[in-house]
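Lecture notes, unit on binding sites. The following record was shown on slide 14. It pairs a sequence with 3-hydroxy-3-methylglutaryl-coenzyme A.
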Amino acid sequence: MQLGIENISFATSEYVLPLATLAEATGVEVGKFHVGIGQELMSVPAADEDIVTMAATAAQPVLEGQDLSAIRTVLFATESGIDQSKAAGVYVHHLLGLDSRCRVIELKQACYSATAALQMAVALVARRPEQKVLVIASDVARYDRDSSGEPTQGAGAVAMLVSANPAVLAIEPVSGLHTADVMDFWRPNYRSTALVDGKYSVSVYMEALRAAWDDYREQGGHELASFDRFCYHQPFTRLAVKAHRTLAKHSGELSNDAADAQIANTLDYNRQIGNTYTASVYIGLLSLLENAADDLSGARVGFFSYGSGSVAELFAGVVQPGYREMLRTSRHREQIQRRREIDHSTYVRLHDHPEGLVGGDHDIAPETTGPFRLAAIRDHKRIYETVAQVSAPADASAVGASPAVSTDTATTAL
Ligand code: HMG
């Protein structure tokens, strides 16, 4: 029996900050961002967006035409939790009208937990192949302003329907695993921004990659040369390039050029969105499937999922014949291109005063043009609403934003 991803979609935020704007405002040579870390733009949520609105937006198209009663589990992976007790997925379950005969839970282990969710989903479906599991990964990457991590922020969500009809990607059973108690990146409960030991985080990421690879091979996994493509967790795209060259050297099987070819097209979307924590490696998968010119049917794709703290997993999947019919390439490119460019002062406002973190009762003015929004906080309860789809608000200046990023610019950037 084949098990894996039947359908997959992503969403990102309303706004976008070009890293050139950040570079100018912070006095950094822009080449450091564009070349040194390999990032061009970063998604910034509007005040009425959060992990729930992005998750519902990502999952909505995946559910179209589905028998919702078959979805008896929703696994919501995030490290940008909005409540210490209630799972964010319960709000999404309501917004999307899922069946009440369903279990919904939230999973956390930094950027890794979406992979844990995917593997748990596969195990659940193996037991009851007539059922499906909705896996959602949604995050807002936030660091202090003027910190080393600032240019590696971003926001986005991925939704994957896991079933015994893996029309997009069949997941293979072998995994390489690695857990190590390290303090490379963390966010105590009293902080809205993450703390990071940047250089150390890169070195433990590489250590985890080598260890997970060794375990993968010991568990009976394939040689590196037998992979067609490879997707990495991408806090910034340059790291994926360095990581795959590190793995090529470690395995002794591939040249740098061959390694670079294996990750081609997996970086395109992440370069435009930024770090999306749990969603990042699966946005990398969509970037590959939607931007590779060649037909990837039958291709073996490797995945390296890393979550600081740290847990890592390396596994493989095989792209299924006919996968292209399952893709939403135009919709996803539009998700990236429709974002409205903000100036530095608007970014500062949104960064320093995320609405949902304020305790008192208040309504939140409409900003997002997406289908779901956080409308208010009342009695410490988050009030979400489904909104009719509109194009960008007529008076974008009301929120300090410029008109939508021009299609030309975004197309060139992609
Ligand atoms: P930094 O220290 O500010 O940057 O931050 P740098 O000085 O090391 O420069 C970066 C690169 O740009 C260097 O290249 C420079 O030479 C180059 P490298 O030596 O690395 O090849 N550079 C230039 N290139 C072209 N033109 C120029 C120029 N100037 C410099 N003008 C750091 C780098 C990664 C530390 C920072 O971005 C950071 O702290 N990021 C956040 C942490 C992070 O992303 N870590 C990744 C591993 S941990 C992980 O993936 C988990 C995570 O997603 C969280 C989770 O699991 O939940 C973060």
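Take-home: The longest strand covers residues 169-179.
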